[in-house]
User: What shape does this take?
Amino acid sequence: MGIELDQRLIGYADLACIVGDTAELGIAIGESSLWGKGIGFIASKKMMDYANKKLGIHVFHAETHETNHRSRRMLEKLGFKEISRNGSEWYKGIEARLIQYELDY
Assistant: This one.
């Protein structure tokens, strides 16, 4: 689902790997000037509410880079708990470890 601000598309929130009552939450805000303003938090919350009520999703997974502190804080504010640190990929020019999260909603 698209995230709009002032009638402009600025990002998206999505669900992937839907199996039974479990799904992976994804979120992206394209313009860095909009990061850290709570938009991702609100969009994530709305997506999880929708998934819970309309699709019966009760367990959410998410993943972010160890160096993406804003994303980590947002996931923790939403109630996600770190469950593992597996894998790595390039993020902002450095190889960053991946952190996996889970939330029972």
Summary: The longest strand covers residues 8-19. The mean pLDDT is 96. The helical segments are 39-55, 69-78. Strands lie at 2-5, 8-19, 22-29, 59-65, 81-84, 88-91, 94-104.
